[in-house]
Amino acid sequence: MPKLVNLTINHTRVTVPEGTLIVDAAKEAGINIPVFCYHPKMEPVGMCRMCLVDVARPVIDRATGQPVLEADGAPKLSFGPKLETACTTPVSEGMLVVEDSPKVTAARKDILEFLLTSHPLDCPICDKGGECPLQNLTLGYGPTESRFDFADKLHHAKRVPLGELIFLDRERCIQCGRCVRFQEKIAGDPVIGFYQRGRKLEIQTQTQPGFDSIFSGNTSDICPVGALTTADFRFGARPWEMEAHPSICAQCAVGCNIVFNTKREARSEGGMAIKRVMPRQNEAVNEIWLCDKGRFGYHYLQSGERLTRPMIRQNGELVPVSWETATDTIVERLKTGRSGLTVLAGGRLANEDLFNLKRLADAEHGKTLFYTHMGGGDLTGQVGLAPGSNLATLGKGDAVLVVASDLHEEAPIWWLRLKQAAARGASLVVLNPRATRLDDFAAISQRYHYGRVMDALAALFAGEAGQVLSQAANLVIFFGSEGLGVDGSQAVAQACANLLIRTGHTGRPNNGLVGVWSEPNAQGAWELGYRPAKNLTAELAEAHVTLVAGADPAGDDPALAETLQQSEFLVVADLFMTETAKRANVVLPALPYSEREGSFTSGERRVQRFTAALPPREKAHTEAMIAARVAARLGLKIEESLPVVFEKLAAETPAFTGLSFDRLAETHPQKPLLSREDLYYSGTAYENTAGLGCTLALTGSPAEAEPVTPELPAPVENALLAVPITRLYDRSSTLVHSSSILGQRMIGAEVWLNPQDAAERGLSAGAEIEIHLKSANWPVKVVINADVPAGAALLPRSVGIPAFELAALEI
Amino acid sequence: MLPLLRGLLTTLKSMAEKPTTVSYPEQKRPVSARFRGRHVLNRYENGLEKCIGCALCAAACPADAIFVEAAENTDEKRFSPGERYASTYEINMLRCIFCGFCEDACPTEAIVLEDNYELSFTDRKQAIYTKEMLLNPVPAQGKPTPQQVEPGVFTRSVPEMKDPTD
Amino acid sequence: MSDMAMLNSGAENPVDEMVLLRHRNIPDIDQLSVYLSNGGFAAFEKAVREWAPAKVTEEVKASGLRGRGGAGFPTGMKWSFLPDKIWPHYVVANADESEPGTFKDREIMEKNPYQFLEGLMIAAYAVQAGTAYIYLRGEFWPVAQKLDACIAELERAGLLGSNLLGSSYSLRLYTHLGAGAYVCGEESALLESLEGKMGQPRLRPPFPAVAGLYNKPTLINNVETLTNLPPIIKNGAAWYRGFGTEKSPGVKIFSLSGRVKRPGNYELPLGATFRHLIYDLGGGIPGGRPIKAIMPAGASSSLIKASDVALDTAMDYEAVATLGSTLGSASVIVLDDTVNMKWLLQKTLAFFRHESCGKCTPCREGTYWMSLIADRMASGKGRSDDAALLGSVAGQIKGKCLCPLGEFSLTAVQTALSLFPEDFAA
């Protein structure tokens, strides 16, 4: 426990830990000291001088070392000769801070007048207008009239693209450097910086392509003026016109808390539409940050290509029908079917959908299968993170192991959190076949050959890293699926689980196993009993009625497409006309999570609730509703109302015991105190009033088991080893189309080769070639990367190439 | 008796007066200087729209009658000076209470309540006035919008304003 | 610049034997052999062979030497701030001589380089630094070339390198050219620049003595300060105290410029009067015109209104302060009655506007604004309230800046406005 210090701010007595800055201490006391350059998540720099306050300290007698007392016995205080910056001055015992005196008020006015000399008068057209710290503080403390000549105002470029996502208005910039510092210190991408000096000081990008960082959108949030705007939201709406709907980002398994800002728009014929995605503070998940995929990748939710009506196949063609007809068709088939319903669900579905579909399948003597490329979720349910875990509290003495995952690409915010944990002193151990951006701050970083992960793990545990991990006070293990299929990642998870059990790192907060899933609710599917099929092709071939929801197996794998083409009766519930849907007998339009409520379980096993941001589009239903409707026609009782479904789920699933939508909506004050009222303190991030979520209880009694190592593919002469990897800007859960805002960053079908392998085959970067994989040819683009191990051909997932596990690949 | 005669006198007098009836709509009476009739969206002399799509009128509107959506100007397709213009501008005249707050809020004097009071509709949709209906015609020396203009000329959204003289 | 430095090479100087500008007595002292034959490196040898590092520091403390860069902080005291627990230590010579009107360090480095380098080596020995840097302003590239050649010469002579003079002490020197920024004379900005970053001042505390270059304890001394060290070590603190006054002992180079007949560098004991410097040495004002004002510390000075009292004031740290100004780096700029203060402010403010690094708001915006007003006034387009506005803006900057540069920018403004209101009458 740090030492506590007592001080007085204005007339309020405050007690805060030693080392607290005056500005933060004041915040604790409910006193807002205006700032521009200071940000509670970053080291202070004292540049903008907005936070000047008058500080008095007790006079200490040099001879005795004791405070000098006034006649009345109170300690004698002495004010400094100058005002001090509250953002850089730590508190000290007996200090008196005055921030409401005429002297301080005058200083604020002076600084604001200086800032406004160069600031343009374009609040009416500025995207920040209405939620602008400079605007608010000018109204609060600024001068009413300008003594600076309007004609002398500097005119700079107003539309400088730093990259294709972020635009700089050079006139509006007040040179606070928050964006520069965020990129350098927090995002670890120092790609923008100051250029020139004095009044010519400006922000510029230092990379090609411009502003090449996956966290770039955050700079727009923390910018205290409208200098940084996003290409997505530029002139999109005025802040006061928008409604805020709390939700959860569905782009990966981190579960970042977000807000959908919605407004009526002409393009939607006066209907509500999402105008932007903003972060919502959850210090245990994403703090106040978001990655660009989460921020800009939402457009698929309101795509015009979404399915709008149920369809059934008549004479080989899919024709639109009513829900009644579609439901009838399914029910008839189920009634006549010889046995049961096979549900194949993806990790995009909400907990409530998965639960209802499972109940329907169970009632119909069917089975539920989980569509995934990665195993091990049964283990994360037993030895996962326990309630009370928070990666932000990992530090000295703790250790984190990351196996077979490129977190920067797969789960950016986890990467950010581990970077911070390492900075706080946690030992980060990375085991991956190629270099990733985790290596930059790893204490130990080891490589292995693709296919040799189990040997590498055994060697790692036996070596120095094993010592670090087993002796750590707390140990978290992240495992991914780089170069691994379901069986491979299952084996890795088992080996990691064994280590956790053996070293006693289970069942406690901040200890456990985390799967780096690519879907928002993969962990939820595992918790609810969904398991991947041992042999999916065989299962689908045998099934009589197949219901595929939130997954596109036919689009991923031509072999599965073939099987599904032959299936007896295929029902598909999805947002789009996927390859799987094209082969269906019945296609049902599903509701995206932005138009309904529900809950996701993140990779850290935190169940979080999302709410409907938009009214549901006509004729689309949740999967939970579909299951309930079908069940009703079969004479079964399955609840439709999502809160009730969740209650039922909680009652029947041990890990969810005691949870309800109300519990998920509980909040408590978070530190640092960031809220909407004082935008200048933290930027435009939303206060979390909609719920922090709850971490699931651990169930089952974990026991060590022998991992089953899958066999390697037989070596083929001259062939490379095809290795599936996961990239950030892919097409998996976003279903982003190339026309979207992230279009430039999206990857297509590509193969990553080592320079030497490429040279031997006479391939240059960007060459368009065909690869032979799974007895078919695939057109791909060559990417040459020195980090790729020799002999490996890296294939990003979910761009249409069926790369699921290691395989031989010919070029 | 006397009151009766006095009354009749009044009647006789008014019989001699000119009638005050105005034969509307052929004839129209002038409105007062500060009359608040139907809105118009003004243009600059060169034809560019004064409206910059800031939506402050919509924010000021107590009846929530105004809907504005903005988009970005380019020098190839310029609607208004500066970066932003109103891509959609609609006023629901059934909601409008003609208070004139929109006029007060406008930073460019783009929206003005003019003299037209002849608003009648046969259905609700007709009551929604679009930007095309509200915009003033292009002045004689101006060009219609969007205009193709020299780069770097129209960079300021909000003109330098002077205190009102009247 | 170059013509200024040349102006006085043979000028008369009352100190018969120069302590700092020894090249004026001894030709070719910029040759190592000449320097050695005139007692060169005896002090360094004495320090390394005979004295413990702490004793060197004690001797410098006893000499009363104060920093010659402008602040006048006791040098020995500054050395003793470096903590013993954190290593390595660095020493940096501040040769970013950028104050308008200051040209003393350049003459030392060009004409008497070995004495400066010996001083730097003594300082490095005193704080046990193994590496010392000479940070030169960007325009000093010929000086850097010269120093590089001298350093190479010293290495060949075995006076720099490993295990010097048979001791276990090793030292290497490097020159580093800045990119031409006044603010890099401020020590934390200098360190940023030396580390390869933008030359912007750091937040203090921590002070460079604790966390300086590469976050290690760093001693930063001005070139002239360092050049004082060899004679102090060689002849002892008591000898040095024989020069100057009780509180400001020693000798100082005064860079005299402005409206004088013989501008140039003059080495004098601290405590000499302005009158002596300007009239006896500088030859007085061309045409015998009256002096209007004196800027004793270059462009960042508070102006001193000329008077008999002012002219007879001793030039030491304490006495100049009684005139409401500072001795600073002792770059005395003389202004006669032909100088209009509007013109003066326009020039100094243009300089500060150009040199503001832009990190903190009051300096970045304030210098720009003040410069605009001064331009307007000087061009005759000023308005009646411009002087008041200028004073108000200057007052608005005062006490709010991150580093001293911002404060320097307004001293001339405030004093000019208060001492010479007649120049600003509309």
Description:
The complex is a heterotrimer of chains A (811), B (166) and C (426). Chain A has 811 residues and is α/β, with parallel strands linked by helices. Chain A has 5 domains: 97 residues, Ubiquitin-like (UB roll), CATH 3.10.20.740; 121 residues, Alpha-Beta Plaits (2-Layer Sandwich), CATH 3.30.70; 197 residues, Rossmann fold; 140 residues, Dimethylsulfoxide Reductase, domain 2; 90 residues, Barwin-like endoglucanases, CATH 2.40.40.20. In chain A, 25% of the residues lie in helices and 20% in strands. In chain A, the strands form 8 sheets. Chain A has a 7-stranded mixed beta sheet with strand order 16-15-26-25-24-17-18. In chain A, strands 1, 2, 3, 4, 5 and 6 form a 6-stranded mixed beta sheet that branches. In chain A, α19 links the parallel β25 and β26. In chain A, α9 runs parallel beside α14. The longest helix of chain A has 17 residues. Chain A is globular, with a radius of gyration of 29 Å. In chain A, 55% of the residues are buried. Chain B has 166 residues and is α+β, with helices and mostly antiparallel strands. Chain B has a domain of 97 residues: Alpha-Beta Plaits (2-Layer Sandwich). In chain B, 17% of the residues lie in helices and 14% in strands. Chain B is built from 4 helices and 5 strands. In chain B, the strands form 2 sheets. A 3-stranded antiparallel beta sheet of chain B has the order 2-3-5. In chain B, strands 1-4 form a two-stranded antiparallel ribbon. Chain B is elongated, with a radius of gyration of 22 Å. Chain B starts with a helix and ends in a 32-residue tail after the last helix. The mean pLDDT of chain B is 92. Chain C has 3 domains: 222 residues, Rossmann fold, CATH 3.40.50.11540; 86 residues, Ubiquitin-like (UB roll), CATH 3.10.20; 84 residues, de novo design (two linked rop proteins). Helix content of chain C is 42%, strand content 13%. In chain C, the strands form 2 sheets. Chain C has a 5-stranded mixed beta sheet with strand order 6-5-9-7-8. A 4-stranded parallel beta sheet of chain C has the order 3-2-1-4, sandwiched between helices. The longest helix of chain C is centred in the C-terminal third of the chain and has 18 residues. The radius of gyration of chain C is 21 Å and the shape is globular. The N terminus of chain C is likely disordered. Classes of the chains: A alpha/beta (811), B alpha+beta (166), C alpha/beta (426). At the A-B interface, loops of A face α2, β2 and β3 of B.
